[in-house]
Amino acid sequence: MHGLHTAAPTSMLAGSPLASTTPQHWVCGGHPWRPTVSKRPPKKCLARASATLHKLAGSGQYAGAVWPGPSSGDPTTPTPLHGSCTGGAEAEEHALRLQLELHDHFMNEQAGSPQTRSGRARRVMEGAAADSARGGFPWSAEGLLEAYRRCGVVTAEHAKTFYLGTQLMTPEKARAIWAIYVWCRRTDELVDGPNASRINPAALDRWEERLEAIFENKPYDAFDAALADTVQRFPLHIQPFRDMIGGMRMDLEKSRYETYDELYDYCYRVAGTVGLMSAPVMGIDTQYKGPLDPVYRAALSLGTANQLTNILRDVGEDAQQRSRVYLPLDELARFGISPGEVLEGTLARAPGQVDPRWAAFMRFQIERTRAVFSEAEGGIRQLSRDARWPVWSALILYRQILDAIEANGYDNFTRRAYVPKWRKLATLPSALVLAQAPWVAQGGRGEDAPGRQPAAAGSGGDAPALGGGEQPQR
Fold first, then answer.
1. What is the residue range of 448's domain?
2. Rounded to an integer, what is the distance from CA 102 to the centroid of its chain?
3. How far is the C-alpha of 311 from the C-alpha of 256, rounded, in Å?
4. What pTM was computed for the model?
5. Nearest residue to 47 via CA among 68, 27, 74
């Protein structure tokens, strides 16, 4: 379902061996929308979660929702929306740790002596030469520039707003972001493109083997060559790329998600991973002296929020065209809604008129998604100034998709929420102003960077962003 939604040119997979494949928790940190790997909820976290859900249940907005207690079944005692956290939260933490370690090592090396930095550059060049000598990386400098140019053409065609934002980046950063975007799009197209009916787990195994080859400087084609060069220049770990392929596997195997934990797993793999891939290229503001962790977590939040927005926008399309329900079934049940009603579209009584249960359910989902967007804001401010514009644009535009769903009366069965082109263009100047604002630390101290603090859920999208643009539409 949602990631790089628009179909990419079939030529992107032409010549690929995949083109001919035959068929065969607890809440923590005050965030009830984000699972963690903690198995026992700290009292403070549980208190915040309960307070949040009490507020939701008692506000009148979610009339009809059932909030069972931990064991008594008492509907007046809200419980966290998650059970024990596995899957996505653990996979996310694993990839995050690996990426942070690699980025820290890279930054330490960059902070070293000129001899250390030039030594790294020399090792990159020598490694490429050695790979070329043994048939691993036969791309000349001119060939690589052409490969990057082709990546830019694809990005410009399918993610126009995001591509425009990359024009403020250094050429090296822009080219790297294009290469990542194209790899994500090609990966998404395996299960959503014209050859999707012929893709099976074995085909994804072969795609993962190609990924391994890219990271070994042995690209299969020009698009792979651009990414292979990118991973030599920036501290990109392979794990987020592997996890995205894991998200494609989920699309082959799953059409229902029992809980938000399960859905979060999917969202991390198909969209949160984009944030982990992009942040190392976009870079950190030189004035920021705090830890990298909150910056990367904000990147994950933006990718996840973009994906949740895609899901809410495409409920009717997924149900009617794919017989899929990308909504937590336990939460549907709390609002008295069955999966069958979603699949049959009976919750839309007429264009723009929906069942009150659905309206209440959608209000809850949109509020949670806006809260995740709010989490992402602090991290954007820590990015290098030349990389912030496309990320701010992504965040603002995706939030506007949520506004459009509301404007449609929560009817995402017969109406598609979208942001008109004129509004997208009108958004760009305000995003640019935000992007160019001087970096200011929370509390005025660089070491006190905004982290995963509770955010107002009412704050109020197209992008790969810190997750950004027209995002890989899984």
1. 3-23+93-473
2. 20
3. 13
4. 0.75
5. 27
Residue 383 per-residue DSSP state: B
Are 467 and 274 a contacting pair, CB within 8 Å?
yes
Residue 291 lies in a domain: yes
**Considering the domain boundaries, does residue 334 fall inside one?**
yes
For residue 288, give the 3-state DSSP assignment: coil
Judge whether 44 lies within some domain: no
CATH number, domain containing residue 212: 1.10.600.10
CA distance 471 to 3: 5
pLDDT in tens, 263-289: 999 999 999 999 999 999 999 998 898
Rounded CA-CA distance 277/304 in Å is: 14
Cα–Cα distance for residue pair 18/25, rounded to 1 Å = 38
Q: What is the largest CA-CA distance in the chain?
A: 70
Q: Where is 473: in which H helix or E strand? A: strand 472-473
Quickly state the pLDDT bin for 63 (edges 50, 70, 90).
very low
**Model pLDDT, residue 429:** 86
Any domain includes 40: no
Number of domains in the chain: 1
Q: Nearest CA to 266 among 303, 319, 314? A: 303
Summarize pLDDT for 14-48 with one digit per residue, the tens.
444 344 333 332 233 334 444 444 333 333 333 33
Q: For the chain, how big is the Rg over CA atoms in Å?
A: 22
Where helices occur in 60-87 by DSSP H, the ranges are none
